[in-house]
Amino acid sequence: MTKASPIPSPNDFTSDRTLVRRYLDQLDLPVTISEKEKTSVLCEIKQLILKKNAKLVTHYYTDSSLQELAETTGGFVGDSLEMARFGRDCDADLLIVAGVKFMGETAKILSPLKKVLMPTLEATCSLDIACPSDKFSDFCARNSEREVVVYANTSAAVKAQADWVVTSSIAVDLVEHLKDLGKKILWAPDKHLGSYVQKKTRADMLIWDAACIVHEEFKFRGIQDMKAVYPDAAVLAHPESPDSVLQIADLVGSTTQIINAANELPNNDFIVATDRGIFHKLRLAAPNKNFLVAPTAGDDATCRSCASCPWMSMNSLRRIAESLREEKNEVIVEEELVEKAMIPLKKMLNFAENNRLVVKGKA
Ligand code: SF4
């Protein structure tokens, strides 16, 4: 008689952290360019954007020069949910998505008739890497009674297996909604966001074990030390951060929710636990306030704070120009995957649109 294979725990599906390390070792970071070259590259990009009826869609974590360019050319800067919405609704023929791979794929899935380019196709995300589609299929198959909810930071192949896609801005609301319907949840891939959602909703959740290499490094102890120096500072944290950090945060929210809170809260000082790329928007939103990067250094570390996504840093003006000029780095998603992944993505957008007031109110 063959022995039935044991039900695996989520840890059996943990992707080897060395896989993430391997990607990091191969990073091809852009070189700094002179002011003269910057002026000429900006001029070329602006002409190409007009000529090709293109829109630049960038994430808050990209370099401030990219964010400025997007806004001054009729493009968009936002979190991944807003980027997806903008790409779908704008009337461009071509989208150039400055962010990481899953953002380009999402743009293509939601806008299959638009050409989607990226400054580089090598910019990825530790959450995406640590949730390979084949292992995820096994996880789903062994827990088929559960509603499958995946974070936006996943490949199209993983999204295609999900019932729902969520971003950090709507994760709590959506899981609460599913819990009210009596559903048990299978959650992937971010364990910190998953635990945060589970705590908030008390839903029955089975959680994959992966993390964002940037947010996982924020330290409770370092933030506490900073609070001693800035006792009136409010702590703003992204829910991909560890639980100990979220416990002392005054606000836990998505990038957009963090920007809104900086504007709305009465404090003058803010300790911010998310990628430092967001400081560009924070300073524009609240120019008279003081923003401090939350520390990532442990007792033995030499750097005070990294807080910078290495893959987001791969996006550069020069690479945008090259990509637009030669129409290279096109995002291609297989038709079958587009059809399947579009379903949970559209459900997410509809849910967010129907619950817009609730979502904003929860910042
Ligand atoms: S900051 Fe973290 S979650 Fe965002 S793209 Fe980088 S590795 Fe992924």
What is the chain-wise order of helices and strands?
HHEHEHEHEHHEHEHEHEHEHEHEHEHHH
Overall 3D shape: globular
- Distinct bound molecules: iron/sulfur cluster
Overall strand count: 12
Q: What is the CA-atom radius of gyration, in angstroms?
A: 20 Å
Structural class: alpha/beta
Helix content: 40-55%
Number of helices: 17
Ends: how far apart? 55 Å
Strands of the widest sheet, in order across it, are 2-1-3-4
Mean pLDDT over all positions: 90
Largest sheet: 4 strands, parallel
Which parts are unreliable, with pLDDT below 50 for 5 consecutive residues or more?
A: 1-15, 357-363
Strand content: 5-15%
Task: Say what oligomer this is.
Answer: single chain
What descriptive keywords fit this protein?
four-stranded parallel β-sheet; globular; disordered C terminus; binds iron/sulfur cluster
Quick overview of this protein structure:
By secondary structure, this protein is α/β, with parallel strands linked by helices.
Can you tell me about this structure?
- By secondary structure, the protein is α/β, with parallel strands linked by helices.
- 44% of the residues lie in helices and 13% in strands.
- The chain contains 17 helices and 12 strands.
- The strands form 3 sheets. Strands 2-1-3-4 form a 4-stranded parallel beta sheet, with helices on both faces.
- Helix 2 packs parallel to helix 15, helix 5 crosses helix 16 and helix 9 crosses helix 10.
- The longest helix is centred in the C-terminal third of the chain and has 20 residues.
- The N terminus and C terminus are likely disordered.
- The structure holds iron/sulfur cluster.
